[in-house]
Amino acid sequence: MAKLAIWTALYPIFAHIGVQTSRIYLPIIYLMVLLLFFIYFSAFKSWAIKGVLATLVVSSAFLVMTFDKGHVLIQLIPMLVLLSLIFIFFKSLVFSSTPIITKFAICVDNKPLNTVKKKYTRNVTIVWLVGFLYMFFQTIFASLWLSFETWSWVSNTGNYVLIALIMSGEFTYRNMKFKNDKISFKTFIMRLSNCRLK
Predict the structure, then answer these.
(1) Are residues 94 and 47 both part of a single domain?
(2) Mean per-residue pLDDT, 142-161
(3) How many domains does the chain have?
(4) Out of 158-162, 168-172, 184-188, which region has the weakest mean confidence (pLDDT)?
(5) Is the pLDDT of residue 2 over 80?
(6) Model pTM greater than 0.90?
(7) Distance between terminal CA atoms of the chain?
């Protein structure tokens, strides 16, 4: 599943290449294959259910390409992903006693957090939420008023740069603020990839 997560994270790159080279079918096929792998590795025990889901995925991809609606699907995917992230982060801040970044921090540190770290990780959750909101509205703006190619630069490239800046900036600041718990970025990523939130 870890490798599948990596291939999922690479989707925007394939989408951007497909848009810039006018080969819209490339990201659609890539997305279809990803979904088929997700179905294969899903928790569903019944092969009949997996078969129905796989048929729906392949049929949907075929219809999208047949009716030339690939650009709509490609623009919709980032919006749905961002909406999901906004919902998850907002819910953890408002309807949960433990913000989602706090849960990740507990997992990465492998120990309970003190009051200072709890307050810090709550603020980091807010920073990520604001970042996702900015990316969401920026993606909508780009899809409505910019060309398809320019939208791809904004959504599939710009948003990833912003995510990298937030992550690297927060990691650097945290290592400076909490020097006793300082770890390398490689260790951080490895621990983060092993986290299983409930």
Answers:
(1) no
(2) 94
(3) 2
(4) 184-188
(5) no
(6) no
(7) 17
User: Is the domain of 116 the same as that of 175?
Assistant: yes
Identify the CA nearest to 96 among candidates 88, 106, 107: 88
Q: Based on the domain organization, do 121 and 198 belong to the same domain?
A: yes
CA atoms within 13 Å, Cβ hemisphere of 150? 9
The residue range of the domain holding 30 is: 1-68
Token pair in block for residue 134: 């900015």
Q: From start to end of the chain, where are the E strands?
A: none
Q: Are residues 59 and 86 in the same domain?
A: no
Q: What is the DSSP string of the chain?
A: -HHHHHHHHTHHHHHHHHHHTT-THHHHHHHHHHHHHHHHTSS---HHHHHHHHHHHHHHHHHHHHTT-HHHHHHHHHHHHHHHHHHHHHHHHHS-SS-HHHHHHHHHHTS---HHHHHHHHHHHHHHHHHHHHHHHHHHHHHHHS-HHHHHIIIIIIHHHHHHHHHHHHHHHHHHH-GGG---HHHHHHHHHT----
* Residues 24, 27, 30, 34, CA torsion sign: negative
d(C-alpha 149, C-alpha 126), whole Å: 31
Which of 24, 48, 68 terminates a domain? The answer is: 68
Domain boundary among 11, 43, 68: 68
Do residue 57 and residue 109 come from a single domain? no
- C-alpha 151/C-alpha 133 separation (Å) is 17
